[in-house]
Design brief:
Helices cover 45% and strands 12% of the residues. With 295 residues, the chain is of the alpha/beta class. It has one domain: Alpha-Beta Barrel (TIM Barrel). It has an 8-stranded parallel sheet with strand order 2-1-8-7-6-5-4-3. Helix 4 packs parallel to helix 6, helix 6 packs parallel to helix 7 and helix 8 runs parallel beside helix 9. The radius of gyration is 18 Å and the shape is globular. It starts with 6 loop residues before the first strand and ends with a helix.
C-alpha cells in the first residue's frame, strides 16, 4: 500500500536550456538538491513545471529523470491532468510507466464542466489510472471550482486519495476537513495559507516557494505537524515576503528568476511565459534574502 502524502512537496520547475530544450543535467541536479534539502515529496509536470508547453514525450522524460534521481527516497507525484478525460487517462498510464508513485489531476480547464461532470471525469481516471490520484482544485487557472460536496463525493472513490486545495477559500477547506472520510489527505495549494490550513488539520502542502527554499518550507510543515505553532508562526513570517514575491508575476516566472539568481537553473521559460520584469527583480532578491536564501 502506498503511504499517504505528508509534509511539503515541491511543484518542480522544469529547467530548460538556452535553446528552450529540456536541460536534463540541470533537472537531475535540481531534484537531488530538493531531496537532500529535506523536501518530503516532489511534483513534476504541474503548472509550475510548464507542462502545458511540453510534448508528451518531454513530460514523460521529466518524470523518468525525476524518478531515477529520487531513487525511492521520496514520492513522485506526476502531473497528468487534461480537460479531455481520455487524454487524462492516457497521461496517467504514461506517468505510471515512467515510474511515478502518485498522479496529480487538475480539474478540467476551459470547457468548465458542471459538478456532476467533474465527478464523472475523476471517477473515469481513478478507474483506469493504476496509481493513487490527487485532485487539484485551482479555480484561478481552470475557471471552475471543485465544490466541497464534490470533493467529499470523490473522496469516497477508490483510488482517489487526496486533494491539493488552491481555491483560497478557507470555509470550503474547513468543510472538507470536517466531513472527509478517514485516510483522505488535504494538501494546501497556497503557500501563504499553509499555516492556517495545517493548523486546521490539513496534512501538508504542494509548494511553489519551496523551489528556492525547500529546507525552510519542509521545516514549516514539520513544525506545524508536530504542534510547534510558535516556531511555525515565526518561520511563516520570515518566509512571507518570499511567498508574496513568488507571485508578483504569474507562476513560475518569479520562481525561475529566483533559481537563476541562485545559480540553480537558467532563467528560460517557454512562450507565452516570459522572464521576470526588470522592476520586479529587486523584490525577488530582497525576499530571498529575508528567507535566508542567497540570490
Amino acid at each position: 500500500m502506498t503511504p499517504p502524502l505528508r509534509g511539503c512537496g515541491t511543484a518542480l520547475v522544469t529547467p530548460f536550456g538556452d535553446d528552450g530544450s529540456l536541460d536534463e543535467a540541470a533537472l537531475r541536479s535540481f531534484v537531488e538538491w530538493q531531496v537532500t534539502e529535506g523536501i518530503h515529496f516532489v511534483v513534476p509536470c504541474g503548472s509550475t513545471g510548464e507542462a502545458v508547453t511540453m510534448t508528451p514525450d518531454e513530460q514523460r522524460r521529466v518524470v523518468e529523470i525525476t524518478v531515477d534521481q529520487v531513487k525511492g527516497r521520496v514520492p513522485v507525484v506526476a502531473g497528468a491532468g487534461s480537460n479531455d478525460t481520455k487524454r487524462a487517462i492516457a497521461n496517467s498510464k504514461m506517468m505510471r510507466e515512467a515510474g511515478a508513485t502518485h498522479l496529480l489531476h487538475v480539474s478540467p480547464m476551459y470547457n468548465k464542466p458542471p459538478q456532476r461532470g467533474l465527478v464523472a471525469h475523476f471517477k473515469a481516471i481513478a478507474a483506469e489510472a493504476g496509481l493513487p490520484v490527487v485532485l487539484y482544485n485551482v479555480p484561478g487557472r481552470t475557471g471552475s471550482n471543485i465544490e466541497a460536496r464534490t470533493t467529499l463525493t470523490l473522496a469516497e472513490v477508490p483510488g482517489i486519495v487526496a486533494i491539493k486545495e488552491a481555491s483560497g477559500n478557507l470555509a470550503q477547506v474547513h468543510e472538507i476537513l470536517l466531513h472527509r472520510p478517514a485516510g483522505f489527505t488535504v494538501l494546501s495549494g497556497d503557500d501563504a495559507l499553509t499555516l492556517a490550513m495545517m493548523a486546521a488539520g490539513a496534512e501538508g502542502l504542494i509548494s511553489v516557494t519551496s523551489n528556492a527554499t525547500p529546507r525552510a518550507m519542509a521545516e514549516l510543515c514539520t513544525r506545524i505537524a508536530t504542534g510547534n505553532l510558535v516556531g511555525a508562526r515565526a518561520l511563516h513570517h520570515a518566509l512571507l515576503p518570499w511567498m508574496e514575491a513568488a507571485f508578483c508575476e504569474p507562476n513560475p516566472i518569479p520562481a525561475k528568476a529566483a533559481l537563476a539568481m541562485m545559480g540553480k537553473i537558467r532563467n528560460v521559460l517557454r512562450l507565452p511565459l516570459v522572464p521576470l520584469a526588470a522592476d520586479k527583480e529587486p523584490i525577488v532578491r530582497a525576499a530571498l534574502a529575508a528567507a535566508g536564501s542567497p540570490a
